[in-house]
Amino acid sequence: MFFLTVSAIALIASVQLAFRGRGYLYSPGELRGWWTDESAPAEELLRQEQRDDFALWLRWMHRAATAYNLGIVLLGCGMLGLLAPPESASVQHAWSRWAGVGAATLGTGWEAVALVRAMWKRHRGGS
């Protein structure tokens, strides 16, 4: 139950992080529309503001993606605990549950590797 609970927290956090970052993503036309002609700063200042906000958006989106991927890995770990057959299970029942454990292990492992690779790539300076 621990992994399922933490999975839910991570998945909810991913939505919140993405929502938080969304405020930093806008088009040049939207940015120009926020100003009247008389009060608009210089075009270069607006471009720089948009570049800075885009960098912030990327940071929040990376956080949201990491929280989402972590939530998926934790969900897989929680499923593993639930799929393990009880001692009293029949052979057919145990076999089908162990097959589910195998599939969940492969999927969870795949997602965990993708998560670590993405984090490593960002740490090394990739996008």
Structure description:
The chain is mostly helical and 127 residues long. The protein has one domain (2-123). Helices cover 80% and strands 0% of the residues. The protein is built from four helices and no strands. The chain has helices at residues 2-22, 28-33, 43-83, 91-123. α1 (2-22) packs antiparallel against α3 and α3 packs antiparallel against α4. The longest helix has 41 residues, at 43-83. It is elongated and about 80 Å long. The mean pLDDT is 91.
Keywords:
127 residues; mainly alpha; 4 helices; elongated
Average residue-wise pLDDT: 91
Poorly predicted runs are none
Distance between the termini: 34 Å
The arrangement of helices and strands along the chain is HHHH
Rg on CA atoms, Å: 22 Å
Number of strands: 0
Return the structural class: mainly alpha
Beta percentage is under 5%
Write down the overall geometry: elongated
Helix tally equals 4
- How many domain regions? 1
Biggest sheet: strands, sense, closure?
none
Helix content: over 70%
Write the layout of secondary structure elements.
Blueprint: H1 2-22, H2 28-33, H3 43-83, H4 91-123
Helix pairs in contact: 1-3, 3-4
Offer a quick outline of the entry.
The protein has 127 residues and is mostly helical.
